[in-house]
Amino acid sequence: MNIFVGSIPFKLQEEELKELFEEFGEVSSIKVITDKFTGRSRGFGFIEMPNEEEATRAIEELNGTEVLGRAIVVNKAEDRSNNRRGGGGGGFRRDNNRGGGGYNRGGDRW
User: Fold this and answer.
1) What is the spatial distance between Cα 20 and Cα 47, in angstroms, rounded to a whole number?
2) Is residue 57 part of a domain?
3) What is the CATH number of the domain that holds 57?
4) Torsion sign across C-alpha atoms 6, 45, 79, 99
5) Tens-digit pLDDT profile for residues 3-14
6) Is residue 85 a contact partner of residue 13, using CB atoms and an 8 Å limit?
7) What letter would DSSP give residue 7?
8) d(Cα 23, Cα 21) in Å, to the nearest integer?
9) Which residues pair with 18 in a beta bridge?
10) Is residue 67 part of a domain?
11) pLDDT (tens digit per residue) in 34-74
12) What is the rounded average pLDDT for all residues in the chain?
């Protein structure tokens, strides 16, 4: 199961976060997301735990837990492919009709 972890203290290292989750079972991967320019933590990351029961227990036990003075947010990560917006939508035309945006900027009028 892929787990989202938010509100991670900026000083917390990946290894420390891994140890926190290993109390509940095997951790197959961990990634704290960093800023591409500064290299600093962005305060969230993802943990992969292969055992569903262990992962669920980790989520239940660790969500809201205080780590280095911050209450972390822990929940099941959503599949990113379902969250991405594809193509069109949005935009504003000068003739006040909705449309534009996306790959085919023409869009249909309705």
Assistant:
1) 11
2) yes
3) 3.30.70.330
4) positive
5) 999 999 999 999
6) no
7) S
8) 5
9) none
10) yes
11) 999 999 999 999 999 999 999 999 999 999 999 999 999 99
12) 85
- For residue 44, the surrounding DSSP H or E stretch is strand 41-48
101 belongs to a structural domain: no
Amino acid at 27: V
The candidate with the shortest Cα–Cα distance to 46, out of 57, 32, 26, is: 32
Separation of alpha carbons 36 and 18, rounded Å: 22
At 79, the pLDDT band (50, 70, 90 cuts) reads confident
pTM, rounded to two decimals: 0.71
Domain boundaries, position 57: 2-78
Q: Which helix (H) or strand (E) holds 62?
A: helix 52-62
Q: Residue 75: in which H helix or E strand, if any? A: strand 73-76
Average pLDDT over residues 84-99: 51
Task: Name the band, by pLDDT with cuts 50, 70 and 90, for residue 97.
Answer: low
73 part of a folded domain:
yes
Count of domains in the chain?
Answer: 1
Cβ neighbours of residue 11 closer than 8 Å, sequence gap 6 or more = 68
